Amino acid sequence: MAGIGFELRKLANTDSFWKFLRSQLYAGILSNGAWIISIGILIAIYFVVNHFLGPKLFAVQFLVAVTYLVASSLIVSGIFQHSLNRFISDRIFEKKYQLIRPNFIAAILYLSAASTVIGYLSAEFLLFDQPLAVKLLMASSFVLLNIIWVFSNAFAGLKKYRFLLFSFFLGYVTTFLLAVYLYQYELSGLLFSFYIGQVILAICLFIFMLKTYPSNYLFSRRFLHFMKLNPALVYSGFFFYLGLWIDKLSFWFSDNTSTLTLGALRASPLYDMPVFISFLLMIPGISTFFYEVEANFSRYFHRYYDAIREGATLEELNKKHAELVVMARNCILNTLKIQGGITLFAILLAPEILALLKLAPIYVYLLRITTVAAFLLVLLIAQLNLFFYLDMARNALYLTIIFFFLNFALTYLTLYLGPLYFGYGFAMSLLFTNLIAVISLRESFRKLSYYSFMSN
């Protein structure tokens, strides 16, 4: 953690505006680079196909297929992401490096087995009218994506950002180059390109794990015991991703807002495009939060807990606690300032943004509300991360469950009320969840010293 934070502080501690901008860009690349690369390459494939062949159904089917793969794999792998990340971090703190690789391999094997069953059954039932090649490629890509999310989340938690960036770049550039040559085979060719890219990405991550954490053991199930003892870590990831996608799923499977695109898979162009654009607009806010946490908050966090372990006086602890609270507040406020500016910009210039992207003006209304929702999502992600920092996973779990049920219920209410209310379910669920999170986080910081001593 110290290495990344030191580099960011070194870049930012200067009177030069360009060096400060460089630090923000560096933070943005590290925190969002993999996401930007993957989305950018997939969109590039879509436009390449349209450029050479004109608008084609199989290009749209490809984007819809990948969207379903990403959404479903994030939800399934969310069960392992936080728990395995925390298990590895604890073993590093204890300097028990030999236990990391065998437990990681065991987790990957369990996840692969479950995702293989889910993937192939889903492909058989949902893609009933597609050739065998499409079914196999979809199911295999689903398994690989589950593995990749667990790897990437763990390596991000361990601050291996540069290697993650390199791996995603290599995997998705391979996907793009293959797609340029294989688009003549239509959907099967594009899915094969995507699959090979994921294979290369998964191999890179797996080899890096083997080299970084050598061990004399091949397989260990100790992490399963850890998961049983920490159910909040297990289910918080699952409910967060389920909550994040439940409104999209609701629009996809509503006859009034979607169309059949691939087998039984449906898409909702009216809702999907504004949400996609608003998600991209989250990048500056996420980058700012990443910078604030790594460069500032983490220092005060470790100072506070070092003081506890070293037996500091009550006065010293209170001082460091106050500093930590101030840094947490600044972390949130600075993130909201940046994301708030982006949100205001997007709301005012929504017609121009759509015109630039050659999209119909009908999207203006939805783009504005989903941009506000994206602002609230950045705030929720920031608060959830602080709860995990404070080792309060149970609070994070409660918030993700609330988010899921609110988004599910309010989205269905807006579907019933009609197009004028589309997007409000997502935004209002985030607003209510954030209000609860603010109250809970404030109380958690107030009682932090008590929790810290009682847990030790």
TrEMBL record:
Pfam families: PelG. The chain crosses the membrane at residues 25-47, 59-80, 100-120, 132-151, 163-183, 189-211, 232-253, 273-293, 342-366, 372-390, 397-415, 421-441. The keyword Membrane applies. InterPro entries: PelG. Keywords: Membrane, Transmembrane, Transmembrane helix. The keyword Nucleus does not apply. This is Putative membrane protein. The lineage of its organism: Bacteria, Pseudomonadati, Pseudomonadota, Gammaproteobacteria, Legionellales.
